[in-house]
Give the backbone structure.
Amino acid sequence: MTITPDEAREQANATLAALYATVTDWDTALLNQAIDAIGGDGRPFSMNDVRAVLPELGHGAAGLLFHSLVRRRHPRQLVIVGEEPSTAESTHGKPIKVYVLSAERLAAITDSSERRAA
């Protein structure tokens, strides 16, 4: 049975929604803290950098969160700026994305830091 592109998109969206539902609030908070700490200086970073500072967690959760942050538009969160080889042994050096925090996210980090300092 052949499905239409719209049906395929609906199936893919349903699958992604089910996967996103498995990402815990704890994983999201932990990953967001790591992303802000690593990328808060404006330099590019990748999952290689995140893995270096976080304990083992569901890396699927990280991938899903990164995917959602890249796709978010208002406010923008992450911007893809390139690729580099993964350092995870299981990936055999497959290319992974390199990101920078968006100007909006950097501004939010700065505002939060200034409020804490006041």
The chain has a mean pLDDT of 88.
